[in-house]
Amino acid sequence: MPISVAAIEDAPLMIAGRAFKNRFFLGTGKFKNKSDLAQSLEASGSELVTVALRRIDLERHQENILEHIPKDTTLMVNTSGARNAEEAVRIARLARESGYGNWIKVEVINDTKYLLPDNHETISATTILAKEGFVVLPYMYPDLTTARELVKAGAATVMPLGSLIGSNQGLKTKEFIKILIDEIDLPIVVDAGLGSPSQAAEAMEMGSDAVLANTAIATAGHPAALAKAFSLAVAAGRLAYLGKAPRQKDFADPSSPLTGFLFDPLDPPIPSNPGRESGDLEKGGSTPPFRFVPRNRKAISGI
Amino acid sequence: MTTPYEIKTILADRSREKTEDLAQEAKRLTEQYFGGAIALYAPLYLSNYCTSHCTYCGFHSHNRIPRIKLTEDQMHQEMSYVAKTGIENILLLTGESYNVTPLSYLKTAVGVAKQYFTTIALEVHPMATDEYQELFIHGVDGITVYQETYDRNRYREVHRSGLKSDYDYRYATPERAAKAGIRQISMGILLGLADAAFDLDSLYQHLKGMEKKYPGVEYSLSFPRLRPIKGEDFVDRGVDDITFIKIICLTRILFPRVGINLSTRESPGLRDRLLGLGPTRISAGSNTSVGGYTIKPPEEQDPQFDIEDTRSVAQIVRILKEKNFDPVFTDWRFVK
Question: Which of A32, A71, A105, A174 is labelled catalytic?
Fold first, then answer.
């Protein structure tokens, strides 16, 4: 039996006023050739890609990677290679001057062995770039304090790493990403280290707003197949997250759904004899109408 | 960390199975961390004046070759030619002469190079930190300096005079460059000078020390093999193809994210087979003589070393694509 349409309707993910129906974002590095990339984009239906400015062939010797990215896909240039905030800011400005838009993934890494981001410099770069009107999506090590600073700095999302870039180790930082999901009111986009679609599903199931992956797709034997698998996994994880959240009676007090009836005069009192008609009592045993309210308000407001 | 004994054992094991195992693991890691990307670069020799006597090098101070140094106009001529082939990553080289090619000359060369290339590296005489700092601010992204051999006795034997004979000063050069802010540092050993296992282990230790102290630098390693030079019969310790391939693979396995450079010293066949097993940057369309691209006719050229892979940039790009690799011309650009 074919899989039917989702039982729960989800709002698109809103970032800086743009709506993303597909919560899988694709990194464009490491592909063996441009057609693998183009096919992966098409197969996944991804609506946002990231490209390292260091690799963009501004001099046009070879086919430009950007020629393979559909015009309606959001392009997010990343500041890969930047070792500090100053370098990240310079790269971002050059990207905008070169006509690549103002969506920037701030990637500040002063560590070529592990490729771990420098949270402190990331905050600095985000502060400057957000003031200059960039849409900043900062890549960071999942630390709550840093995330709070990034919110203050004007970031559009927070992008915590799952594990080391290219490691395919999955959600090593799971518990700390969960904290961000609970405490930070920006979209949480898990980026780096996701080596399989199941890991992407896991990230979405616990409440992440989106996932970005590159290595696992670009280095696969059939990149387009993996790209599609990731996209499906992200959708599946998202559906599972939405579906798991408890539903709520539309007239109930959300703070005490189980025992509110003891205190709330609007709740129908317990019938002493279920089924006996008595004045304004409802017939015992009937089920009041339910309205779905997910645990996290971001789920339906799409914030 | 792999011990010197283990490295020796690995290199000594010449069985087919062990060699294949190493290659398979190296392939997996190279693909995982670099995908199909192979960056292209070309060397451009500015000067062959040299005050050091390194017995294995075509430019050494006692070698009777015509000495030349490019003028600014000649730099434009040579660089323009190389740039037209598509190369964006240039490695500028000189012999070791502080008088003939001082900092000011190098800055002039870098100033010209910036008009043609997006990434500039230098392989020149070791300099002080403040000199590297000036070069970094001026636009130099990378410094290449090989210790050649870490065997002090052998080092003394083959570096007979000149500043290069100072082992410790040379050893500390990567650190001075890193302190100055240089973002890419290439280190290496000249295979065939001394015991390969010893030099390999020493190089790894040197790199590990640098990684710990200067984690923000993009490191790469080179493993040039000794080639015959004009005017010298040089007895080398022969690193054959099997050992060479194992050195590349082992390096990839032990340092998954470090770059590995492969020059045109090696034959086309070997270079092609090494693709995917570790190398991340290869030279193409190379000439190792001063003025060799456009100024000196072939019969008048004095190369630093003989080139085995004489394929043009276009040919290399075609081969890379046929083998499903992604040729990368630009991997960084100096952004003011």
Answer: A105
